[in-house]
């Protein structure tokens, strides 16, 4: 299993897909990186030579902000929004959708499937004996 940026890359997948396991690298960036290093997109990650793996590591670590650094950057950005009292920061604090989605329905993902309506989660009436 090749290890790039502290992440084990799956061996049985194409390298284009395998690179997306690294936080901060999606499909378009993966294609761009492979084009720069001149590696075939359809090559399996288990078929990579040690030189190719080292080239990928060097390029990714020098040029792009990924994994821990990127997570830290995002966390700092959210903290800044909370500290200045911005609307988006308040939404983050309350655990509600930040980007203008409706909240009357369809926000179970953000809230963690909390059901707050009258009939939901009600126990059935006890049967008379």
Automatic annotation (TrEMBL):
Keywords in alphabetical order: Ribonucleoprotein, Ribosomal protein, RNA-binding, rRNA-binding, tRNA-binding
Listed InterPro entries: Rbsml_uS13_C, Ribosomal_uS13, Ribosomal_uS13-like_H2TH, Ribosomal_uS13_bac-type, Ribosomal_uS13_CS
Gene Ontology CC annotations of this record: cytosol; small ribosomal subunit
GO molecular function, one term: tRNA binding
Gene3D superfamilies (alphabetical): 1.10.8.50, 30s ribosomal protein s13, domain 2
A biological-process GO annotation: translation
Known function: Located at the top of the head of the 30S subunit, it contacts several helices of the 16S rRNA. In the 70S ribosome it contacts the 23S rRNA (bridge B1a) and protein L5 of the 50S subunit (bridge B1b), connecting the 2 subunits; these bridges are implicated in subunit movement. Contacts the tRNAs in the A and P-sites.
Quaternary structure note: Part of the 30S ribosomal subunit. Forms a loose heterodimer with protein S19. Forms two bridges to the 50S subunit in the 70S ribosome.
Protein family (similarity comment): Belongs to the universal ribosomal protein uS13 family.
Protein name (database record): Small ribosomal subunit protein uS13
């Amino acid at each position: 299993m090749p290890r790039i940026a502290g992440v084990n890359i799956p061996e049985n997948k194409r390298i284009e897909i395998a690179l997306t396991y690294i936080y901060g690298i999606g499909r378009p960036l993966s294609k761009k990186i492979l084009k720069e290093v001149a590696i075939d997109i359809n090559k399996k990650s288990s078929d990579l030579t040690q030189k190719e793996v080292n080239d990928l590591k060097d390029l990714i670590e020098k040029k792009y902000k990924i994994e821990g650094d990127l997570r830290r950057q995002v966390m700092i950005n959210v903290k800044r929004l909370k500290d200045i009292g911005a609307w988006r920061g308040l939404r983050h604090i309350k655990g509600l959708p930040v980007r203008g989605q409706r909240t009357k329905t369809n926000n179970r993902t953000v809230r963690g499937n909390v059901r707050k309506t009258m009939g939901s989660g009600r126990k059935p009436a006890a049967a008379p004996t």
